Amino acid sequence: MKRKDNGLIDLTAIDPVVEATLSQGRRRIAERSLPKDERKKTIREREKAAKRNRVMLDIDPAIMRDLSKLAEHYEISQSQLTSLALVLFLNAIEKGELDILPYLKPINNPRYSYVVNWNK
Amino acid sequence: MAIIAIANQKGGVGKTTTAVTIADGLARLGKSVMLVDLDPQGNVADSLGVDPGGDLNRAISNNMTLQDVAINVHDGLDIVRSDKTTVVLKSKLAGMDFREYVLVNAMDDDNHDYVIFDCAPSIDVLHTAALVAADYLIVPTRLDQFSVKGVVEVLRTLSSIRRFSNSGCEVGGIIPTFYDRQTVETQEQLENLVSTFGELVYPVVPVDTNCRKAHRAGKTLFEFAPKCRALVGYPELPCGYMAVINRILKL
Ligand SMILES: Nc1ncnc2c1ncn2[C@@H]1O[C@H](COP(=O)(O)OP(=O)(O)O)[C@@H](O)[C@H]1O
Ligand SMILES: [Mg+2]
C-alpha cells in the first residue's frame, strides 16, 4: 500500500488489475451506446487489429504435437509458448550463444538458398 | 503470522465464500491456515463438507485455545466450527468484563501462518472481538447502489473499536464480489469504490454459479472447479480469488 508523506493512503494509486477491469468496462459501455452500424464497425476494427498479430506458418506436425503437449503441461496457450520460444531463440542469436549455420543445407530453389535440417 | 477478519454487516455479500476460498488457497500454497467461523449458521463447515460442530463455544467456554479445538480438513487447513451453541456463547459473553478480548486470549501461542475469521453479518460481541484480535480487516462487497455505504459502515465500526480498545487492526482491502460485466451498475459502483478507496480495492471476483454449486457439494472452489471464473477471472482479464490471494500474500 502506497502512503503519502503525511501517512495517508494514496487514493490515486490503483491496483493494476482493477485499473484494467475499469478500462475494459468503460470500453464495453462506450461501445454499447453506439448506433448498431458503428458498433459493428468498432468490433470489426478490433478483430482486424487482433488479426494483425496472427501469422500463418507451415510447421512440421511433429513439432506442433510437442508444442501443444508442452503448452498443456504448463497450462498456457500455444501462442504464448511459441512467443516465449521465439524470444529465447532471438535473444540467444543476438548474444551469439546460438549459431544456426550448421543447420542449413544449400538447395537448388529459385526463392531460397538453404533448407533447414533440424534433426542434425 | 497474519490475522485477517472477513467482515461486512450485510449478509449474502460473499464473506463465507471469500473466507473459505482464501483459506483453502493459502493452504494449497503451503501456508498453515486456521479458519474460524464466528457465525451460528455454521456455513464454513457446510462449505468444506464437514459435519457441523460447536468448536468455538467449546474452546471459549472451557478456557481452551482455538488451536486446541480446531479440526484438520486437509494439509495446511484447520477449521474452528460454529453452530447454534455460538448463540449461547454470545449471551454468556454479554455480561463479561473484557469480552472483546476473548479471541485474542483464545489465540495465545497460536502458530499458524494465517488465522482467518469469517464474521456473522451483525455487530455482535464476536464481531467486535474479531476486529480487536485481527491485524487486517477485509471487506467483501457486492457492486450495488449501497455498496460504498456498506463499506463505509464497516470502516466506521472498525474505527470506533480502535478507539475503545488497543486494536491495531488496519483495513487490508475491499473485495468487489458478484462482478457482472454485463451491467452498467456494476461498472458505476466499481468506479465509485475505486475513487473512494483507491488501492484498497482488490481485483474483482466475477459472479459465477460455481460458487453456489461448490457450496452445495460441500467442496471448495479449488476442488470443485479449479479453472472457474470466480477463481481465475476471464481470458482477457485474469482476476478473481487467485488475484485476491496474490494481494493477501503481500499484506
Ligand atoms: N462470486 C459469486 N458468484 C455467485 N454466487 C456467489 C458468489 N459468491 C458467493 N456466492 C453465493 O452467494 C451466496 C451468499 O454467499 P456467502 O459467501 O454465504 O455470503 P455471506 O457469508 O456474506 O452471507 C452463497 O450461496 C454463495 O454460494
Ligand atoms: Mg456467511
TrEMBL record, chain A:
Instruction: Give the protein name, as stated in the record.
Output: Uncharacterized protein
Query: The organism sits in which domain of life?
Result: Bacteria
From TrEMBL, chain B:
Domain AAA, chain residue ranges per copy: 1-167
Q: Which Pfam families has this protein been placed in?
A: AAA_31
**Could you tell me which CDD domains the record lists for this protein?**
ParAB_family (cd02042)
Superkingdom to which the source organism belongs: Bacteria
Q: Could you tell me which InterPro entries the record lists for this protein? A: AAA_dom, DNA_Partitioning_ATPase, P-loop_NTPase
PANTHER family according to UniProt: P-LOOP CONTAINING NUCLEOSIDE TRIPHOSPHATE HYDROLASE, PARA FAMILY PROTEIN CT_582
Organism, as annotated: Bellilinea caldifistulae
Instruction: From the Swiss-Prot or TrEMBL record, give the protein name.
Output: AAA domain-containing protein
Lineage of the native species?
Answer: Bacteria, Bacillati, Chloroflexota, Anaerolineae, Anaerolineales
